[in-house]
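Exercise 7b. Backbone tokens:
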């Protein structure tokens, strides 16, 4: 008896494509298992194709001890019936069913069997992936990450509701065979996609369930939702009714929402690629089958899409499909109602859904992106005739009597060349602008013929001096069979002879230069042959090898040893300083304060600033070098001083005669350096590399004894390297507090006017901490609901949002003046100076803002989890400079009663500032410059002898 019987069915109705190839792929994945006691049970329908039967016999002949053939009863025609035959014929301790073309990972059976034996579970499930597109790339459903985050055992399926809320058990799981027979588990034989129902029924019937975090199955096919919509809805309803019958109405509601997200919304997204006739048929089928209410918790555009699909409105669904892929574009007329609410649909139409949170109402005509739908594309009198309709939202648009001018512009893709054709008719209607244009593309569109063979079209509309630019959108079948036009490339007709209209993958209308006639086709074939025969291929390989060699010379792997071995031997240039702030991402923080203090004192130092991506915002009178460039390495190798607040690249040694001033970027609440759990778990070479990087520091600035007992200890910094001067960046905050106490808060610093801040509104700065680890910049989800803040406080407050410099956040559209993104502003101290309130979580920015003696509110909904994961140096609730809130309601309540909160926490905030900023007295920049850059400061300074000895290695 085998340990695992893997059922593979062939020839059933609705089995899917693949045939013999799919059978071979599935069976080979079973035979390739590291667990040899896994058998492939191939169930053949009586109607199976001859090629499938031949492939099955060949597999059985090759491995008779591991491949068994089961010839199903002629009455078993459906996939469900064949699978039931496989369950009956299985002899393994566990049974697993594979769909058409699905493949097991090499250790899948071993992982499932081991988890089942260890946990004594009746059902063992793991992750699976499906073919994402025509390229064959595999992708896992996004919801699997949380469900299978760790291996675990469940006593009941409700402990992991996603097992039945999502289609988690369509594949990638096995059942104890004895449990299958004990509970009478069977596939519904009259139901297409019956595996969607079988998994939840099995999970609800058995007792213990084991989840394995390993990938089990790949190659699952994405269902054809347009073809199988009725079947998918039916099987979903049976699952939902099963949950309701078991007294789980909340899971049924979640299942309804998940079905809309996982099946209906993807179906809507596919509409632009469907022919018009099929779009109408799918919409009609949806109107017959989608009779229930739309899940209320869907995002607005998904709610619009499902609502229109249920109404059978094919054109509306098409517009919703465009909107789903372009949320910032207005794709249909909008109606503004009471209270400023905005709904999808024009005046007189049945309202579809509330989409107020998209923020379209806050943009004016000319600012917003509008859907420009191409309605006609044909030939007229030898010219290209285009007609279209530009959607107008109900709240904004040109005056109905205003003169309109429009031009259709074709622009070479990837280039600056453009050719414009004036529209011959432009007409204003209540909810759209209708336009028509003729383009003599044969005469006026003259491409070179190389690298400018694709030209994108857009409409430029002007009304009352306001200009609106929009791409032309159309479904994929819009230009099918459209006439072609003669082309006259500047390189001659051998480069191409025909203009062909087509729709891009992004649903944009465009023209492409094609070779339709024999001379051009022959020329293209010759060029293709000349670039692909053996000498040309060898030349390409040679060029590719040379490019790789050049890229190697530009790589960090080559630069680091070249720098450490040779550049560090160069003589130091006296008086040269390299400044860097936050790894070159900005011109700010303490390095900026020191640089400006040096200029103020008139010291003759040669300054070089490093930048990471852009030079915007950096000083014009300093030499700028890009981080990791050869000029950057040259500057570091010859500098007498290094100054930064984060850390120059760890792998670069400090030259023997260079003094490294580390200003650091903030006091520590969370554990840092060698105190951090992540670092403690690293291997010895990684920790030693970190320590070598820290040992380069000659001076390290601290602003209190708290820094000495935390940061200095965490990085093993000896006493003689510490400078108790405070942070130079905080001098500006000390000065601002003194000015506010003597002169008042108004007028605010110039930055407030530059950001458009109203003096009569309070300014709240939201600056969350960095929550990631080492790596590239990533997008983060803000814990604070910015849109809700704008709705509740937008009339009296302005929210400044500053994401961490290693992260970025996308903000929703909010009323003008209510929310401002300041994440790209270089110097955070300038933002602190203009802010009335700080909202943060665990960021060190709270230590700086406390120096202003202004209200601080901490928004930390994940405080316990963050402390457990990262660790902390003190209890935030006991020593925080303001209230610590865990929910948005608590946060908003404190902001609404800010005066009471400020009074209550005033003494605690001052004590906080005194404890963590004792050395911030307003003269840190001057004291640091005198200590480090003074005439005798460099004499006797400790230089890292270990780097000096290794500089030439």
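Sequence design result:
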């Amino acid at each position: 008896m085998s340990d695992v019987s893997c059922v593979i069915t062939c020839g059933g109705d609705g089995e899917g494509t693949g045939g013999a190839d799919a059978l071979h792929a599935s069976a080979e994945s079973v035979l390739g298992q590291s667990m040899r006691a896994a058998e492939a049970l191939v169930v053949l329908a009586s109607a199976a194709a001859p090629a499938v039967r031949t492939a099955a016999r060949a597999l059985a002949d090759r491995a008779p001890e591991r491949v068994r053939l089961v010839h199903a009863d002629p009455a078993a025609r459906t996939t469900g019936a064949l699978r039931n035959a496989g369950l009956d014929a299985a002899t393994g301790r566990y049974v697993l069913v594979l769909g058409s073309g699905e493949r097991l990972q090499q250790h899948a059976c071993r992982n499932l069997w081991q988890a089942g034996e260890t946990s004594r579970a009746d059902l063992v499930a793991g992750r699976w992936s499906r073919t994402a597109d025509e390229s064959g790339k595999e992708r896992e459903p996004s919801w699997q990450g949380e469900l299978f985050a760790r291996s675990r055992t469940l006593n009941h399926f409700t402990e992991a509701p996603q097992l039945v809320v999502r289609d988690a058990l369509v594949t990638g799981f096995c059942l104890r065979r004895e449990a299958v027979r004990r509970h009478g588990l069977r596939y519904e034989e009259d139901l297409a996609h019956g595996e969607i129902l079988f998994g939840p029924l099995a999970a609800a019937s058995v007792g213990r369930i084991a989840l394995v975090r390993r990938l089990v199955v790949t190659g699952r096919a994405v269902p054809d939702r347009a073809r199988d919509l009725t079947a998918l809805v039916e099987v979903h309803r049976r699952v939902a009714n099963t949950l309701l019958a078991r007294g789980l109405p909340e899971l049924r509601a979640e299942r309804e929402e998940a079905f809309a997200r996982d099946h209906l919304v993807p179906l809507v997204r596919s509409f632009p690629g469907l022919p018009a006739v099929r779009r109408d048929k799918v919409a009609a089928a949806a109107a017959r089958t989608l009779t229930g209410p739309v899940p209320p918790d869907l995002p607005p555009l998904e709610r619009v899409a499902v609502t229109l699909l249920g109404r059978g409105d094919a054109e509306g669904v098409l517009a919703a499909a465009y909107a789903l892929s372009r949320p910032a574009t207005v794709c249909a007329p909008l109606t503004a109602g009471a209270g400023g609410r905005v709904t999808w649909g024009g005046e007189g139409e049945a309202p579809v859904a509330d989409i107020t949170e998209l923020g379209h109402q806050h943009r004016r005509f000319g600012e917003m992106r509008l859907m420009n739908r191409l309605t006609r594309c044909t030939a007229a009198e030898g010219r290209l005739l285009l007609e279209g309709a530009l959607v107008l939202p109900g709240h904004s648009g040109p005056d109905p009597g205003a003169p309109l001018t429009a031009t259709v512009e074709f622009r070479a893709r990837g280039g600056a060349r453009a050719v414009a054709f004036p529209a011959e008719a432009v007409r204003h209607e209540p909810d759209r602008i209708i336009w028509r244009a003729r383009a003599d593309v044969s005469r006026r569109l003259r491409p070179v013929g190389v690298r400018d063979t694709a030209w994108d079209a857009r409409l430029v509309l002007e009304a009352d001096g306001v200009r609106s630019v929009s791409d032309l959108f159309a479904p994929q079948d819009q230009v099918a069979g459209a006439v072609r036009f003669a082309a006259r490339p500047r390189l001659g007709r051998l480069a191409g002879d025909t203009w062909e209209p087509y729709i891009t993958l992004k649903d944009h209308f465009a023209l492409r230069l094609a070779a339709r006639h024999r001379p051009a086709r022959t020329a293209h074939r010759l060029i293709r042959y000349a670039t692909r025969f053996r000498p040309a291929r060898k030349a390409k390989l040679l060029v590719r090898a040379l490019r790789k060699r050049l890229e190697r010379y530009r790589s960090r792997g080559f630069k680091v040893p070249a720098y450490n071995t040779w550049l560090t031997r160069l003589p130091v240039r006296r008086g040269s300083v390299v400044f860097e702030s936050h790894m070159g991402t900005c011109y700010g923080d303490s390095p900026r304060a020191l640089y400006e203090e040096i200029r103020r004192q008139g010291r003759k130092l040669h300054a070089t600033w490093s930048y990471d991506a852009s030079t915007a915002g950096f000083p014009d009178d300093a030499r700028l070098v890009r981080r990791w460039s050869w000029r950057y390495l040259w500057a570091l190798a010859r500098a007498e001083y290094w100054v930064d607040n984060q850390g120059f690249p760890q792998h670069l040694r400090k030259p023997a005669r260079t003094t490294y001033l580390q200003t650091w970027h903030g006091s520590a609440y969370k554990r840092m350096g060698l105190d951090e759990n992540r670092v403690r778990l690293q291997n010895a070479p990684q920790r030693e590399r970190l320590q070598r990087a820290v040992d380069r520091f000659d001076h390290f600035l601290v602003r209190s004894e708290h820094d000495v007992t935390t940061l200095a200890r965490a990085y093993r910094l000896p006493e003689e390297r510490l400078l108790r001067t405070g942070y130079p960046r905080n001098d500006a905050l000390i000065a601002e507090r003194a000015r506010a106490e003597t002169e008042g808060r108004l007028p605010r610093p110039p930055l407030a006017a530059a950001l458009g801040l109203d003096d009569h509104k309070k300014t709240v700065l939201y600056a969350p901490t960095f929550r990631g680890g080492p790596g590239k910049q990533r997008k983060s989800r803000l814990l604070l609901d910015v849109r809700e803040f704008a709705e509740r406080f937008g009339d009296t407050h302005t929210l400044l949002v500053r994401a961490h410099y290693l992260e970025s956040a996308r903000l929703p559209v909010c009323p003008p003046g209510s929310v401002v993104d300041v994440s790209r502003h270089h110097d955070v101290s300038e933002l602190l100076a203009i802010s009335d309130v700080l909202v943060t979580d665990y960021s060190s920015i709270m230590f700086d803002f406390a120096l202003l003696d202004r209200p601080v509110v901490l928004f930390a909904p994940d405080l316990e989890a963050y402390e457990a994961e990262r660790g902390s140096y003190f209890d935030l609730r006991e020593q925080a400079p303001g209230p610590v809130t865990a929910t948005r309601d608590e946060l908003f309540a404190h902001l609404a009663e800010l005066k009471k909160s400020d009074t209550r926490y005033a003494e605690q905030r001052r004590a906080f500032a005194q404890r963590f900023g004792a050395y911030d007295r307003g003269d840190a920049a001057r004291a640091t410059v005198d200590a480090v850059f003074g005439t005798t400061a460099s004499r006797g300074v400790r230089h890292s002898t270990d780097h000096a000895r290794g500089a030439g290695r």
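Instructor comment: The first strand starts at residue 4 and ends at 10. The radius of gyration is 34 Å.
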